[in-house]
Amino acid sequence: MRKEIVIEGVRQRIKQFAVGEVFGYDAFGELAQAKRKALTRALSQLVKAGEIKKASRGRFYKPAKNRFGDVPITDAERLKDVLKNGYVSGTAAFNRLGITTQIPAVIEIASPDKSYSTNVGRLRIQYTRSYIREIPKDVELLMILDAIKEIRKVPDASPDDVVRRLLWIIKRLEKDRVEKMVEYAMHYPPRVRAILGAILEHARYKRLRSVLKATLNPDTEYLVGLEDSLPNLKKWKLLGPGRTYRAWKRRWEKRKMKCSTDT
Predict the structure, then answer these.
(1) pLDDT averaged over consecutive 10-residue blocks of the chain (263 residues)?
(2) DSSP state of 72
(3) What CATH number does domain 2-73 carry, 3.20.20.140, 1.10.1760.20, 3.30.70.260, 1.10.10.10?
């Protein structure tokens, strides 16, 4: 009798979900905490009965129906579900920002949880650890910071191409959003704050530039591959490709010339 009560309670809760909406154990509130095993058995029984379908491990949905039977959910719905505690990062995000035209075979999702790979329907998902523990709604700001962090790894775009595009985007953001981005940048590596600081200085955000500058070691140089996208790269100690090597080569040639002169 108790089993039937649990199943009926689960069934009534599922009726409140939209067709195709993906849900998990957390959608059942206290039942998921107090009677997890009973909830698991109830969901399993409803799957066997064809009332709901499995979307992925621990995730279910109420299928739409047509004259041919149950209609599978779309990849867009699956992706919407996995983004509830994360956001699109990597090449897919850089594509959305207009930095690259590449479309990745594997979608990277940044999330506070551990890193792992999985298949969600036909989608191949790579979860990576985000720098922000609580993912904000305005994930575009995090995408921008991720693009700066991966500035040398963006497909079909040089580091200078990335900066030029991000400068164009940032100039069009509202001031309060830029302030939020600086707040999030405090959780990222120093080189990200240095590049963002150089961009904001060029975009005339003097106060925010100073906030970022104060977090950096004045003696640290950043080999990020930038050459001519901003006029203040040297000021922020952002080095271009091979600049360190060329300096070493000049010193080596001087020593070699000195040795040949001495002999």
Answers:
(1) 76 88 85 82 90 85 84 79 88 96 93 86 89 94 98 93 98 97 98 98 97 97 93 93 58 68 63
(2) P
(3) 1.10.10.10
